[in-house]
C-alpha cells in the first residue's frame, strides 16, 4: 500500500470542486499512511468538515494574504513547502486547468515524476502507485510507473466515485512563510463564461452539438434535451469557431477533455480530434443521419436519423419518464 497521500484541493468562490472529493475518496482507498488535503484561500477553513467527510485525515489550510489570489509560482512554492513538512509519498492533483498548471511546477520544484491526466491510479505489486493514462488522443491507454521516490498524479474528474467516510479531519498548521509580493504572476481577475451552466469537465451528462445542427438558433433543440436530462451543453470545435456557442463549450483535443457518465454526440461526425476529448465518457450516444459517420465506431449506442426529429422525441420521452417516476 502507498504511504501518505497529499491531495491538492482547488476551490472556486469558497466552493470545493467535486473532483477534490473524488481524489480524497481514491486516496483513502489507496493510502496506508495518512491522507492530507491542502486547500488555499480566504474560505479554506470552512471546508474542514467536508474534506474530512470524504476522506481527509488531516487538512492544511493556507489562508493568509499570500493565498487570496492564485499564483502559479507562488502556489507551487507553497505546495513544495507543505510537502517538505508532511512528507507524503504521493500527491494527487485534479486534471483541471488549475491542476494542469500547478502540478508540473510542483514536480519541477520537488524533483518528482508526474503522470498527468490519469484515468486510474492503483497500488502495484511492489506497493508503489501506478497509473493508467490515455495517449495518442485516447486511441490507447498506457500503464505508467513513476520511478522517483515521490510520485505525482493528476487525475481526470468523474473517474472515481465519491465515498463518505465520516472522518473528522485534524488541522495541521504549516506556514510556508511566503510573501505574495515576490510572486512572478498572480491572477488579478476571473471572468465567468456565459451561461452559468454546470462546468463541462465535471458534468455527469453532456449533450453536445456539431455542425449537423446547421444554424445557431437550432441549438435550442439541444437545450431542450439538456434541460430534460439535467445535462450540460457542449459542442464540436467548428460550432464554437463559428460563434454559434461560446468557446467554453468546445470539446476535444484543442478544447475541454470531458469524462461524463453519458455523452450525447448530436450531429457530430466523430473526427479523431473530437474523440480525443470524449474518450473518458462511460457511455457515448451518437445521433447522426449518416450511418457511416465515424462517431458510430466510438459510440455505445447509436441512432441513425435526422436530429431535428430524433432529439425532440427523445426529450419528450425523457420528460414523460421523469414525470411518472
Ligand atoms: C489541429 C486540429 C485540432 C482540432 N481540434 C478539434 C477539437 O478539439 N474538437 C473538435 O470537435 N474538432 C477539432 N478539430 C476539427 C475536427 O477535425 C473536425 O473538423 C470537427 O470535429 C468536425 O466537427 P463536426 O463533427 O461538428 O462537423 P462535421 O464533420 O461537418 O460533421 C457534421 C455531422 O453532422 C451530421 N448531420 C448533418 N445533418 C444532420 C442531421 N439533420 N441530423 C443528424 N446528423 C446530421 C453529418 O452526417 C456529419 O456527420 C481539430 C482539427 C485540427 C486540424
From TrEMBL:
Family the UniProt entry places it in: Belongs to the ETF alpha-subunit/FixB family.
Cited Pfam families: ETF, ETF_alpha
Organism per entry: Sulfobacillus acidophilus
One GO molecular-function entry: flavin adenine dinucleotide binding
Keyword tags: FAD, Flavoprotein
Domain of life: Bacteria
Any single GO BP term: fatty acid beta-oxidation using acyl-CoA dehydrogenase
Binding residues annotated for FAD, in chain numbering: 211, 236-237, 267-274, 288
Keyword Flavoprotein: yes
Co-factor(s): FAD
PANTHER family, per database record: ELECTRON TRANSFER FLAVOPROTEIN ALPHA, ELECTRON TRANSFER FLAVOPROTEIN SUBUNIT ALPHA, MITOCHONDRIAL
Cofactor: binding details: Binds 1 FAD per dimer.
Coiled-coil regions, chain positions: none
Name of the protein in its database record: Electron transfer flavoprotein subunit alpha/FixB family protein
Domain Electron transfer flavoprotein alpha/beta-subunit N-terminal: 5-189
